Amino acid sequence: MNNYLDYLPEILDEYEEELLLEQPNKRCITGLRNYTLMKLILTAGLRPKEILNLNWENIDLIEYSIMIRAKNLTQNRKIYITLDAVDALREWKYRQRKEVGECSFVFTTLAGNVIKARYMRSMISRYADKAFICKDVSPYTLRHTYGAKLYNTNEDLKKVRSNLGLADSNHLKIYSILADQDVGFLY
């Protein structure tokens, strides 16, 4: 019987996270952008589409939060982010304004256009290869890593559901199964 539980997503351990985040050259504007993008997925669990559609007006760098706006108002959610993610966002915002110009979207090309999903997937995979991470690493790998860490931290599936914006509670089983498989030692 095939179902979604037959496939458990890969997640990164703490060491692999660090290796991945060390790959972008943050002195280069695109390296800083890519670092910030990966850091935000790893510390907020945003979906790839949410990352690509993220506007500066939805980020509160003083309150350390991001408001994810959904088509259905009841699915809007506020996510609190870490200080290091806020620092990365502040640095990226400064560089983006200085070198690209005023942009409403957070993650843009040097021409000010929103980066493409295909670029994001290949960029993350390329950095994982460069870091010698022997896993198929994608934006969803980073999202699942966040979800597993969040569950291992507080064992509260409601919090995981809320933070990840999951409408289907069946997907929550994945995080409890990952925890039951003793991935807790990774964090």
Automatic annotation (TrEMBL):
Highest taxon above the source species: Bacteria
Keywords associated with the record: DNA recombination, DNA-binding
Protein name as catalogued: Integrase/recombinase XerD
Organism classification: Bacteria, Bacillati, Bacillota, Clostridia, Halanaerobiales
Keyword DNA-binding: yes
Biological-process GO terms, alphabetical: DNA integration; DNA recombination
Signal peptide: none
InterPro entries: DNA_brk_join_enz, Integrase-like_cat_sf, Integrase_catalytic, Tyrosine_recombinase_XerCD
One Pfam family hit: Phage_integrase
CDD domains named in the record: DNA_BRE_C
Annotated source species: Halanaerobium congolense
